[in-house]
């Protein structure tokens, strides 16, 4: 009788038969087949279903919360919604004081709504007015929006700000765009 190598033994085992030390072949019992099925199918399925059950049961993942998920993601991507209404831009030569020679004031009415709690203060340097020569101008410290509320405004969820920003630009230029972004002081060492 030829001696079988390890590859021949493993091949025989894959077919449901194996060779014991005495060289006798016998079929795998039903109990061993059931245990193999348990090891390779049932245990991994149970291990995957337990975290899913915990997520649904304890976190309360429901259809209502899943339906609101796109809205929550949109609020996080766009925490502040702001607009300049139609007719919200006007040019003035005098606004509680005379403009610098060769300049005029631009008064921009703005409405902002915080959709989530904003983690930075809104300060005058958050705004920039872009003119038709692509030059950016910061609002003046005496903008009505900041005179009414102070130099730094904290926005909680649902807070609505309405007011006017005051800019000074050269007379021959036109206001094209209003920009808003977080402003941070940079410290020089």
Short summary of the structure?
With 189 residues, the chain is of the alpha+beta class. 32% of the residues lie in helices and 26% in strands.
Number of helices: 4
Please estimate the helix content.
Answer: 25-40%
CATH-level-2 architecture of one domain = Sandwich
CATH fold description of one domain = Immunoglobulin-like
Radius of gyration using CA atoms only? 36 Å
What features would you highlight for this structure?
189 residues, alpha+beta, Immunoglobulin-like, four-stranded antiparallel β-sheet, 4 helices, rod-shaped
Describe the structure.
It is a single chain. The protein is an alpha+beta fold and 189 residues long. The chain has a domain of 101 residues: Immunoglobulin-like. It is built from four helices and nine strands. The strands form three sheets. Strands 3, 4, 5 and 8 form a four-stranded antiparallel sheet that branches. The chain has a three-stranded antiparallel sheet with strand order 7-6-9, with no helix packed on it. Strands 1-2 form a two-stranded antiparallel ribbon. The chain is rod-shaped. About 4% of the residues have low confidence.
């Amino acid at each position: 009788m030829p001696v079988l190598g390890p590859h021949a033994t493993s091949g025989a085992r894959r077919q449901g038969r194996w060779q014991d030390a005495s060289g006798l072949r016998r079929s795998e019992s039903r109990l061993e087949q059931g245990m193999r099925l348990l090891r390779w199918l049932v245990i991994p399925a149970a291990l995957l279903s337990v975290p899913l059950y915990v997520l649904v049961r304890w976190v309360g993942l429901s259809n209502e919360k899943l339906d609101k998920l796109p809205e929550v993601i949109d609020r996080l991507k766009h925490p502040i919604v702001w607009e300049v209404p139609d007719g919200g831009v006007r040019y003035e030569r005098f606004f509680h004081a005379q403009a610098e020679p060769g300049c005029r004031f631009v008064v921009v009415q703005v409405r902002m709504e915080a959709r989530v709690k904003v983690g930075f203060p809104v300060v005058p340097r958050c705004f920039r007015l872009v003119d038709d020569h692509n030059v950016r101008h910061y609002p003046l410290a005496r903008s009505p929006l900041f005179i009414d509320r102070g130099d730094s405004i904290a926005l909680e969820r649902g807070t609505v700000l309405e007011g006017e920003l005051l800019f000074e630009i050269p007379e021959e230029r036109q206001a094209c765009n209003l920009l808003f972004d977080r402003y941070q002081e940079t410290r020089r060492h």
